[in-house]
Queue: 2 jobs
Job 1
Amino acid sequence: MSRTTLSPRRERLARLGRRALWRLAGGILVLWAVATLTFFALRLMPGDPVLAILGGPSGNPTAETIAEATREYGLDKPLPVQYALYLGRLVQGDLGISYSQHLPVTRVLAQQSWPTLELTLSSLALAWLLVLALTVVTAGRRRWLASLASLAETLAAALPHFWLGILLLALFAFGLRLFPPAGSDGWRTLVLPSIALAIPLAGFIAQVTRESLELTLEQPFVLTARTRGLSDLAVRFKHALRHAVLPGVSLSGWAIGALISGAVVIEVIFSRKGLGRQLYQAVQAQDLPLTIGISLVVAAGYVLANIVVDLLYQWLDPRQQGNPA
Amino acid sequence: MREPAQPLQRHRPRPRSPRIYPHIACATLCSLLLGCGQDSSTVTRSTQPVSGGTLVYATDREPTCLDPHVAGDMPQVFVAQQYLDSLVSMDQQGRIGPWLAKSWEVSADGLSYSFHLRNDVHFTDGTPFNAAAVKANLDHMANPKTQSSTAGGYIRQYRSTEVRDEFTAVVHLATPYAAFLEVLAQGFLGIQSPTALLRPRDVNCESPVGSGPFKVVRWERQSQVELVRNPDYNWAPPTARHQGPAWLERIVWKFILEPSVRFASLQAGEVDVIEALPPESHEAARRNPDLTLIIAQRPGNPTNGTLNITRAPFDDLRVREAFVRSADIEGALKSVYFSEFPRAGGPLSPATRFYSADFQHAQDYDPARAARLLDEAGWTQRDSEGYRTRNGQRLQVHVVMGNRTPPSEYTLWEQVQATTRLAGFELIVEQMSDVQATKRQADWDYDIRLGYWNTNTADVLRIIFSSEFIRPAGVGGYHQNTAGFADPAFDGILQQALATQDAEQRRGLYYQAQQIASAQYLQLTTYPQSTRLGIYKTTQGVRLEPSLAVTYLYDAWVNK
């Protein structure tokens, strides 16, 4: 088929496909780098990994036990060989056996990924809800109202997760007993952790969105819309918002990473299942396969989120499609 | 935390994120302000056990494996005590009684133990309990593939088990070992189904099978373990309060890391029993009419800093005593643990059989004596910063801590640092990764290592102070005798104590051993390890199994 017969629409789709492929290839490179860095960072830590496996300084293994474990985990081979073997298995989807959990890493991931994903997504959704409620209603209003809202956003963005988590626990779980303080089954256990993660994130996104919304509201097309007799809220939601959310959307890709690092703390405080808490324990136990496994999943989630944001950006802003990066 | 050297049976307090910790007090305070005093309706507590119902238990640390033969950490034995039985039982006084073994004889040379077994016991998978099962279990613990810590410390003497007939097992040891029956009473050496033990280690970790009053049905990681009643159970130990199946239908064993959250969940009645009640909540728990407390010290070697006597300055007994005497531990326990933890003054915890109170005060704070001793030892000069010196060298000691050392323990040692400084010691606290700390220990590159050892026998003195444990246990190169103490007379006393079954003779020998260890100032002991339970008003009959002060829910019932 000759190039000239391609319709502009198909050509745009093909370009989008190529773009997605390139980004995927980049993503795989990132994953390889994560696996390699984590592998060497953990392996080159001083001390014998067998001792970490067998309970660290507090274990009391016999010589036979140590020799057996060294053999079992392949730690008797030279480091480059261990690395090559590890990568080889990784390509086949075998992440190995967790030293500290006595489980295949893939099973740990299968058990712990969903609660973290659930927490991350609900926090992101909640954060956006807060952003829209706060910015669309207050941007470009009376000066004092806008500055008050802006101050609230700055404060929210600066709140540490653990502080917020403990405050929410004290108020709503211990005090008013509205929500359970611990656990990870049912939507009620999801409320407080999501709020703790969403508030600082909402502060960040709202700051950018407010600025861009205020710029948009000064654009001539907004004036045009107003002269057509549209109500103020309709103008804000139907016309201005689509322009103003763009920086916020690209920030959301970054936010996935921020949320997962926040999840480490929040899952510990709220005794939730999840990758964050598992990662915290895996690093402490110097559990190499599990640490790499979780890092890979988190990195993959991050890469994927950024691809989605990229595509979403294209969809929201048709101008971007004309000049692909 | 047996963090330094040895714990076979170690209990490391839940590692906390240092960033979170300072805020716990705030959460506790809030919970005090807001959480108490609600729902004060009193439930009439019936002393009549009720059959059925679910008990929700919450603890801090999750085991890494439910089979207690693998590794050997305290959280494992707490779960194991609910679904495993042991060969023998131990009562409050530390005496050994029958359980799965009806009776036993020990050969005159102390090398063979003949166990006569119950013939009416089966495991929850239907496998019958017999002599072959005993053999399978001891062999399993001794097998290097099991990765057992128990094998290294407690049954190193084990050689083989001979199945004399269906219900007679003869265990052969390499050397006399009178503490064998005591360690067999620990849940760590609980008896599992030999059929289940044939499966790979990691499978058995997840779904172990015993003959106990409950059986493990599900383990949801980072959340809970579920156990249900074993309806066939009819072989409770003589220490139990009833016979037949357990009262409880089901146990949900939850893991809640944050101490303040655990305590708040108990106050709200969302959980029935919590373990590792934080010391800062003891007073609030006592004042709350809905709660009862069970606090028991664990037997073994109390929490301590062990002094490395193989190098200066602690190679000098006078300097060791001066250091110990210049540390105000009573004051530190008051400010760090609100006086909730008693002082341990001797090498054995008061809960250990053959403990003697005579050595309780050998470590009392006495700065005047410390100063005199340091003068005698030649540390007479002071440098510009106030530290003592000898031949121009400063009196410096390094304490090596792993990064899992809990913040409260760190604070305790900061207080030791402050008070020993007045006597002229410069105490340098070095915190590093656990594996690095192990390396430093293996190289004998420390002056002080923190540790404790929970076990139900005075034979622990042999593991921590006898010359046979100076050599590393394995190629990893770390030793259990962190002090580096080697004294043939001391070794001889402990060997003699293992060669006799006579309780009075053992008492006398362990008295001598405690006397020597105490007079040598090998450790700065701080407080005994303890099990601390908070129990909500709807639950009764919860007890601690005496061998390691482990929660035992067989006799418990709920009235909700």
Note: Chain B touches chain A through 79 residues (CB under 8 Å).
Job 2
Amino acid sequence: MPRFGQLFVKLAAIAVLGVGGGLGSAWYMVEAGSRLTTRSFGPWTTWLAAGRPDADPYTRAHTARNGLLPIASTLELTFYAKTDGEGGQLQSACDYAVTVEGLDAAWWNLAAFNRRGGLIPNGADRYSFSSDSAMREPDGRAVIVVARDARPGNWLPVGAGKITLALTVQDAVMAAAVHTGGSIKALPTIRKMGCR
Amino acid sequence: MNPRLPTPMLPQSRWPNLAPPSLRVNRVQRPAPGWLRKIGWRTALGALLLGGIVHLGATLAVPLIGPGSAYQKLRELLPANTMVVVAPLQPGKQLLPFLMPDAYYGVCRYSLAGEAVSISAPLLDLGWTLSLHTPHGDNFYVIPGQQLRTTDLALVIVPGAEKSGELMPATRRAPTPSEDQIASPSEEGLIIIRAPLKGLAWKGEVEAALARAKCTPGVKS
């Protein structure tokens, strides 16, 4: 009987550790990604095989689980940022300056979402800026201020809660460099200006 | 001391071949961690194997039984083989998460059950795209717009090579070689035209362009 009890405990341990560990690690790989499936540039992360028919199972699961419909990453890359340049979580209690510089040859769009990918309601009815709509500084940079209250210039309003910034860049040359591990043009910097 | 004198040899037996001093430190063998001793290495190995199987199974199952892929969400909303124009997204009324706002979308759920599907769509500028997706989200065809140049596309989606014989009835007119044909790897899928809005001044132009976009069953003669 004691041997049977010991066997039962061991089987239970196998089941708990195996199922828990397997599901936990799968969830992490699907939601956060790893070096095999994503590439990061400062606070920005992109899924390397997003939208591609030859995507790996983790990227496919990530796309399906989040209900995404990405364009093939060989043409267009979407970078997501949940933190600022210093690693702090992006949240509406703080104001951020996103400086876009060096993406002149590409078409780009910067949008603010909540963590689940939903648009954040705001009175100004403004949800994104693109290379067509952002005002430029005299030196060609576009500085977009992400803040709850109105700001002069390119103001991207956000409501309460944590924020995810999504930067879409349509540039096949950059996409090729990201896939081959080469260096790319600088992605926008995200600087915290202050918090309430 | 006379240098001519030979150096006295010492008997070999007094200088045995000693091994050089060893740098190895004899470490005390640490016992296995308490938890490993408690459950045993066989149990740990079993848990590892089971974890690997569960990990692979869960990852592969997500696209099949997940909470709702983009196609599943749109399938209920869209009639088959009809282009639906969606105005710029509003909070709470988004088609899909993380979909680029400040853009119009032309969306068509195509079905190749029985015949090919023709698409005609204009791409007015940089940022505009026409993309074709399978129900699993694979983007098997995409064409971007060009800066300050309107591109009027006319494409025909046909069943993939391995299925074309089954799905294309002989009575239907086969697409002529001049028409751009795209072989779809799946019988159903989505056609998405993304039309970014530069500003309110361009709204009329974008709406008029998307009104010309069509997605119709059959091949235009």
Note: The mean pLDDT of chain A is 91.
